[in-house]
Amino acid sequence: MKRAFQLIFAFLLVLAAIALAVSSCTSQSALRGGETAPAETPAETEAPAPVETPAETEAPAPPETPAEAGPETPVTVDAPEQTGLPEQGFGEAGSLSAPSMAEMTPAERAAAWGLPAPPEGIDLSATEFKLANSYNSITDKRPNHSMGAGVIVDAVADEAFNNFVGDCVAAGYGVSAFRGYLDWWTVLENYYEPEVFAHGAEYAASATYVPGCNDHQTALCIDLRLGGTGYLGEGVDFRGTEAWDWLLAHCAEYGIILRYPEGQESWYGTACVNPCHFRYVGEAAAKYIMENNITLEQFMLLYDWESIYVPGVN
Length: 314
Ligand SMILES: [Zn+2]
Hints:
Layout (H helix, E strand, L loop, with lengths): L1 H32 L3 H10 L1 H11 L2 H36 L1 H5 L3 H7 L42 H16 L4 E5 L4 H16 L1 H7 L13 E6 L15 H9 L5 E3 L6 H4 L8 E4 L2 H10 L3 H8 L11
Antiparallel strand pairs: 1-2, 2-4, 3-4
Helix pairs in contact: 1-2, 1-3, 8-9
The site of zinc ion has 7 residues, from strand 2.
């Protein structure tokens, strides 16, 4: 077949060459003559028209395209794969996770996570559900009350924290709150910037919260230490002690939770500097969160799938 084509092309090329020769002669003669238009036009219209078009279309088109298509085939195979894969990926991910969870009721979401039905009457717009973590920033706010010795908490949580700490002390465990509300500038200057200056911004973001993302800015939490009252330094990590056990066993009774349970960092991002960090969320929420060992983020996602962001979840 190729040879037959080549022969035909060769023949046509010869014809084209002859035609070109004739036409160039006639055009030259026309240039030379330059007067007798009617005599030259028939020669030009006949010769170039049929001969040149086959010469142009044949030579490049039929023989060369098959030759080029050979090496190019892998490229044309890759192209549909690249365009097809993302569509499939998005379709699968979408149908299996986010949209289906978004359409569920709180009880259905809880069931999907293997949790019991969550309490009713939870209003996430209430003060106690103000959320600050690595993925959810808040604007600064001024709490409207304080708990002794310079540890400031919001009025909604004041009584709960006082009773919580007071009852723990009364039970024989000398604990005290040494850090409560922190304003934006304190978070920046005392906690975030020192890490940036010492280790760089990337490390700082992994070791502490950037301003706006620190739970202490909500004025709904306290850091506890063993012994003393007021600020006596950072204290030591007293997890595992009897005092710690009392706090974990009773915090929910006061509407208070352990804010950063170990091993659940993916929900809240960076843990607080002090792991002995307790947060007020109200009694119904605290009971559910502590009984099921979940985070505040997971609890809030049960009720609102849209306004709280947790990477890899929604
Ligand atoms: Zn803290």
